[in-house]
Amino acid sequence: MSARPSLVVIGGGPRGTGVIERIAANAGELYGDTPLDLHVVDPHPPGGGRIWRPDQSPLLWMNSMAEDVTMFTDETVELAGPVVAGPALDAWADDVRAGRVTPDADPAVLAEIHGLTGSDFPTRRLQSAYLRWTYERARAALPPGVTVHEHRTTALAVTGPRGGRQRVRLQDRPEPLLADLVVLTIGHLDAEEEPEQAGLGDFARRHGLVHLPPDFTADSDLGALRPGEPVIVRGFGLAFVDLMVLLTEGRGGRHEDGVYLPSGREPVLYVGSRRGVPYHAKIGYAWTGERPPLPRHLGPDWTEAALRSAGPLDFRRDVWPAVVKELGHAHYHRLFTAHPERTALAHEVFAGKYAAADPGSPELAALVAEAVPDPADRLDLDALDRPLDGVRHPSPDALQDALRAYITDDLARRHDPGHSEDLAVFLGLLSAYAQLVRLGDIGGWWHGFFSYLASGPPGPRLHQLLALSRAGVVRFLGADLTVEADEERGLFRARSATVPGAVTEARALVEARLPDPSLRHTASPLLRALRDEGAAVTGSGLLSVDPADSRVLDRTGRPHPRRFALGPFTTARNSGAFTRPRTGGPAFRQNDAAARAALAFLRDLSCPGRLPS
Fold first, then answer.
1. The pTM is what?
2. Of 27, 393, 397, 595, which has the most beta carbons under 10 Å away?
3. What digits encode the pLDDT tens for the residues 485-504?
C-alpha cells in the first residue's frame, strides 16, 4: 500500500462532487503540488450517484427549472476559499449547443440538452449528464500531484484510531483502503423498516398483499401494482408525483390537451397524507423590482444568540417565532413595494412598527389588520400549512370536486405575478434555511414545511394530476390519513378526517416518501458502524457534525480529526439537492469549509509537530 497521503470520499453524487470541486479550488493555496491519492467510493457513476444516475426513465423530471440549478459558487456565497465560476444548468446547455462543451451523454439525452431552455424542468437523466461533466471538470482542475481512484462499490465500515490512518472496508475486496482522512457524502439513505412498516409488511406477506415501504420511487417494485386495482398511497409530496407518472404515462397513458387518455394498465391511486393536499406548485414567473432585504429578523446575530442560549432549543418556542417574523417581513415588504394599492398605511410607518412588534402579539395582528385591509393579502402560515384543518365533506365525491378547485386555484396563484409576495416568501424561506442550518438538529417539521411550501412539483405535474383526477385514475382521500391492517378481511383500510365515516379498502399500500435520514433505522452498514462505535446521533437520528467544518462529533461533542460528513443524514442538512444561482447556498459554504479543513490537515500531516494531538 502506498505511503502517499490519502483522502477517501464515500459517495460520488452531487455532494461528493461539490466537495471535490472545492478541494480543486482550494488546493493551490493550501496543498500545492504535494502528492495525494483521492479515492471516490460509490457503486454508481461519479457525478450523479444513485439518485441522479443516467439510467432513469425520461418521464422523471427535476422539480426545479434549469435556470435555478447550479453546481458552482458565486460572490453571494460565504466562502473562505476562492469563487470558481461555472455555468448553471441552462447556461451549460447553451455551451453544449455552441460546441464549447461535449458531455458524456447518449443521443436521446443530447437531444434533450439541445432543446433545453431556462424555464424548462429537465429530466433527471439530463441532470445526470450535467453532474458528470461537473465532476470531470473538478477532477481535471485538481493539481497534477493528485491521483484519482474510482471504486464502483459500497463502503461497509470506517475504523481506525483518532491519531492514525483510517481503514475503509469495501464490499468486494479483502483489503481495506487506507485513508488519512475520510469524507462521508453518501446522500439519501436506505432504511430498515421501522416498527409500523415492519408490521404492515408482515401483514401483507401473510395475506398475499402488496406493501411498498418508503423508498426512492424509481427503485420501487411498481410491477406488483395491478391494473385497475385500488392502491392506497400515503404521502402527497414529490415521491407521489414520481409514482403517479410512472404508473400512468409509464404504463402507456397519454396527456392530450388537458385530458388523460388511459392505457387500461393503470391502477387506481387513492392518495392522502397529513395535510391531504399536494405540495404547492413551483412559482412560474421571474422576480422583478426591489428584493426584500434579507436576512432582517433571522440573521447571523439571531443565530449566534440562539446558539449561546442555555439549554436545548425548542423549535416551536424558540425558533418558529423568528421564522414567522422573517417570512412576514419578506411578504409585506413585497406587498407594500410592488402592490401598494392593496395596502392602507405608508410603507415606512408599517415597517417601523412591524420591526418593533413581537411575533404573534396582538399588537402585530392589529397592525397587519390596519395596514392590509383584505385578509387574503395577509400572511397566514398556519392556514398555508394545514389548508384542510376543520374542513369536512359529506362524501368522497364532494372532496374530489373541492380538492380539484383547491389545486386549480393554487396553480393560478403560483403563476400570477400579481401575487409576487409568494415569491418574496420563497426568498425568505431560503434565507431562513441558510441561517437555521447552523443550529444543527431542530427536528424534521421545519424541513417538511420548507419542502411543502418552497420545493413542490412543476406546475405541469399538477395539471396532469387534475387530468388524472377527472379521469378517475387518482382519487383524493383527504387529511390526517390513517391506515390500518384488517386481519379479518385481509385488506388495508384507509380513513381520513376530511370525509368522516368514509373507508377505502385495498390490497396494496404504497408509502410515497423517502426513508427518514435517520441513523437509528439506517440500512447502511457504514453508518450503523459509526453510530455503534460512538458517533453522536441526535434525537431525530441525525449524525452530529461540527458546524464549523463538518467533522463528525462523538458523544462528548469532540470532533474526529480524520472524519467528515455532509448531507441530509447530518445535523447540517440543507434545503435541497441543488442551489439556485446567486442565493448564497449554505451547501457551498459547508463544502468549502470541509475541503479547506481537509487540505490543511493533509498538508500539516507531513510537518512534524503541526498537527494537534
1. 0.94
2. 595
3. 999 999 999 999 999 999 99
